[in-house]
Design goal:
- The protein is α+β, with helices and mostly antiparallel strands and about 260 residues long.
- The protein has a domain of about 160 residues: wza like fold (2-Layer Sandwich), CATH 3.30.1950.10.
- The protein has 6 helices and 11 strands.
- Helix 1 packs antiparallel against helix 6.
């Protein structure tokens, strides 16, 4: 013992032992803290990774839901449009004639299945395929034989069944100079569940065309008298988008809570 402490002074051997032991203890403590810190970082990273994965999945689901609401069914021509589209009067159309100052000669006259209309004073006239403007000019010439400077105005009406997601489905006389939007307004407009991207033209039970342009003039479409215009209904997700969005948000909260708890 006297060899270790001489005159109250610790020998170099003892001093080295104390320093060595202290260094080891200090290093051991630091190593333990480093390990705990590394484990904590790894666990936090795993939690963050799970949250990112779940959030990404739910984001994709939300985008899919929104995408489903933004689009409608693609246009599908069941019959070639060239086969059904042409300007002019057709069987089943109604011709509304207004002759200024001649109420007895004015009125609404139907084009029969042979394409013939019977006009007052003029008798039967074949009008099949004749454009509205041409018919108006011809009536001015014909009525000039009986009237002095007749003023004639012709409006073609097509009786169309407007069905599906409209307020008042039914049969309506449609002015060919109106747009499809104005035509649908005759039936009270679209309902809250209507899909404006799914407007079908149906003839004799066959779908001729889908997704008609809402701003097209009726006369510029394949629509004929006796056709049906059917407005489709939006899908379940489209009708319940608020519910779907709320559900996705709730699921996100639940999943994040579970991941953090674990």
């Amino acid at each position: 013992m006297s060899g270790l402490i001489h005159d109250g002074v610790i020998s170099n051997v003892v001093r080295n032992m104390i320093v060595s032991t202290t260094d080891r203890t200090d290093r051991s403590g630091r190593v333990g803290q480093d390990v705990l810190h590394a484990d904590s970082c790894k666990q936090e990273e795993r939690v963050n990774t799970r949250i990112r994965n779940i959030s990404g999945l739910l984001l994709v689901l939300t985008m899919i839901a929104n995408f489903g609401c933004a689009i409608g069914p693609p246009p599908a021509d069941i019959v070639s449009i060239s086969e059904v589209t042409f300007q002019g009067l057709r069987a089943g159309d109604a011709v509304e004639v207004e002759i200024w100052g001649e109420l007895d000669l004015s009125g609404e006259f139907t084009v029969n299945r042979n394409g013939v209309v019977v006009f007052p004073l003029l008798g039967a006239r074949n009008v099949s395929g004749i454009p509205t403007d041409d018919l108006e000019r011809q009536l001015v010439v014909d009525y000039a034989e009986f009237l002095e400077n007749p003023s004639v105005n012709v409006t073609v009406l097509r009786r169309i069944a407007i069905l599906g997601e409209v307020t008042m489905p039914g049969l309506y006389p449609v002015d060919t100079t109106h747009t499809l939007t104005e035509m649908l307004a005759l039936a009270g407009g679209l309902t809250s569940t209507a899909n404006k991207h799914d407007i079908q033209l149906i003839r004799d039970g066959t779908v001729l065309r889908q997704s008609l342009d809402m701003f097209s003039l009726v006369d510029a479409t394949p629509i004929q008298a006796g056709d049906q215009i059917k407005v489709g209904e939006r899908g379940w997700i489209q009708r319940n988008l608020a519910l779907v969005t709320t559900g996705i948000a709730a699921l996100t909260t639940i999943f994040v809570s579970i991941v953090v708890a674990n």
